[in-house]
Model the fold of this input.
Amino acid sequence: MPEVAVVKKRQERPQKEKNIITLKTLKAQKQLMFMSLPFLAYIILFSYVPAIGWVMAFQDFKPAKSFFNQQWVGFKHFQFLFSDSGFLRVLRNTLAMSFINLVLGFVTAILLALLLNEIKNALFKRTVQTISYLPHFLSWVIVAGLVSNALSTEDGIINILLLNLGLIKEPILWLGKGEYFWGIVGAAKVWKEVGWNTIIYLSAMSSIDPALYEAADIDGANRYHKMWHITLPGIKPTFVVLLIMSVGHILNAGFEVQYLLGNGLVVDWSETIDIFVLKYGISQFNFSLATAAGIFKTVVSVILIYTANTISKKIGEEQLI
Amino acid sequence: MRVTVKKLLSAIVFLVISISLVLSGCGSKGKNQSSSNESTNTKSENQAKLEPITLSVYVNAPGQQPTKDNKIYKLIEEELGVKFQFEYLVGDSKQRFGVMIASGDYPDIVNGGTELINAGAFIPLEDLIKEHAPNLYQHYKPFWNKIKDPDSGKIYVMPDYGRFYGDFNRTAHYGPAFWIQKQVLEDAGYPSVDKINTLDEYFELIENYVKKNPTIDGKPTIGFEILSYDWRNFCLTNPPQHLIGKPNEGGVVVNYETNIAEIFADKDYAKAYYKKLNEINAKGLLDRETFTQNYDQYLAKIASGRVVGMFDQGWNFGSARDSLIEQGLINRTYVPLPVMLDESYAGHDWYADRPAINVNSGFGITVNAKDPIRIIKMFDTLITERWQKILQWGIEGEDYLVDKNGRFYRTPEQRTNANDQVWQLANKAMGIFDKGPKMEGVYSDGNACGPGDQPEEYFAGLSDYDKGFLNAYGFKTLTEFLRKPPENPIAYPAWQINIIDGSEAKIASTKLNDLSMKYLPRAILAPMDQFDAIWNEYVSEIRKLNIKAYEDRINEQIQWRIKNWSNN
Done:
């Protein structure tokens, strides 16, 4: 069954590529052009104009001085970034936490979506869905508070649970061991975002043609077969698009949760690029360094997005650009 | 044809709507500007002496807006014709300053320091004060050179705290100290201060108490707490300097004979202190979670009354202390002890200090202010004794009374009112007073500038428990546990020295801080036989930093201060 869908798409694509923009089409679509103008203006104004600020990265920027009085320093700030011993560490932490969050995030969201999709009782399904996506609306400050309370050695629920199950003999200082930190952040992210992330998959699943399921029924497929051969391939395009977008964000491992849960004992595992930039850039009014780090992140993100996109194109999957 | 026209029309309508939506943010700003222009126009038309003026004020601390009919602001409006529009800090102050600087959108009066000075946000005040504000000039005259910005030699902010009149007398200690619960001293039979003023004696006191009282209110007793959260990690890093009899200079100790500063993080006396903490931890007296908890959790623990002792600055756990008092757990509130490294330093404690003039913070007038003379004249009026009494004590007869000897006092009801935050919003001018220039110490008539420093007021406001406790020691105030502070060295305090953002010195000090945060908790929590190894690694990491740049900057500024401040 899924092969049919793929073949269909393959046929569509070459047609699209033939579309050459002519003056005639422009004229014919002028209403559309007009409608998109404000958004074009919006993007130029808020996404491209601020990029002029990138010149800051090559200056010793002082807010009080005018543009022409700024001191130009070339790649000094980039050099500071890449030569600092701490930077490699925060880069490692950022990548590791991003990767963990990426994998955990996708796996749990798709699993939950699959399970929810199988539930036929609408009320129960909606209740579970609502409960699971509610934490999304909590601020990280609150979630970090909840997490550190849950992990407390005194009356934290995790330690109490493990103690009563007899798995440990005395409470573990979860937030005091660097080795646990990435896992704690990953788990906290899953708890907060899993319900929210399922929404898009559920909507993708609901757009799958019911005829496919009926046909599979006739062919004698059971639930697992249907999940594997119909539901999962059905959400694949959505999954790939989301994956490409997430890959672009891999250097944004987040800031709040690491900042709020981190402490001196785990600093080697908890500091991300954003925290590093806050410490040595923004909070020292060294906007130039912060900008340099921002450029670095953007460049890496663009490269990653294009790479992911190209790979996806090569293996015949959905693409974004 | 008609159809296309219609389509085109609807497209245009849509376009207009979306553009107006996108630009609505800018639109409201434009409106504000035009209305303020109007008000300036009317101002120039009738230049009466006290024509009403509204000043926008930024206060760099969280706070609440006063009520509309706040009686002190009403009085200021009636007499000075000045109305205020306050903006309080929400969130992170550095961020707020960054936004202010980037946009150049400053209120008339801003409570800030070096960031704004460096950004050119303030106008210089020395001529303004000399010409238009005689009272303010008298107020700052003894510190005239001190309050100048070291880099430009100009005065940009009016320091808020530290200008004392008359005898130095303080009823409460808000500075650093090793604190101990009153109950602990009571149980130990009120040992005299010289029996509990070394590190060993202090922790012995704690150990004995915890042994006898393993739980407080059914929950495990916590022997010692070290807060290390975020910038409040001074609880972890500052003690070594105090243990050898120095006042709080921040990250360095200064030799007052040679006036040379050096960092103390890697010194032997620092090691001795952290080794002691390591030992305390091995005995189970240190809170297990002490290095992973955040500030709120720390306060919650203190407020539960289970924490026997900690090193901290008095102002840093004020809300926990208030909470203990509210719960009626006065015996669980704290006493500052003059704990020293060993007996040889006894009697040289410098926990209580004479507050130096606070040179880095206060109100400044920004380049956006339309009438700086008017503003400085307003501050000039507010610094007179009459207005200071109104701002600090309130209105005579309403908020305080005067006895036949001319001493100010309050009835219990007035005292409760003054501590009631809701009452304060309607009856105190905190927005303009807290960060504004103020008199501290005593007025010319002998009354204390603020009710809290009036000795009889202080004693009358104490609970019965506190009265009994102080009587047992024969003290009148808790500050008597500490040595009465000697005169400040000229260049004191070094922590106020502006380490220029982004400089080598700043990077070194930030990295030193990072190292302390990383290694000290690890060393303290390590098994006792591993302490030395971790400590040595810490010291060798420190030696790799450009500490010299940091020390040089401080020493250079100390020399600058000695040169420029001596001739005051």
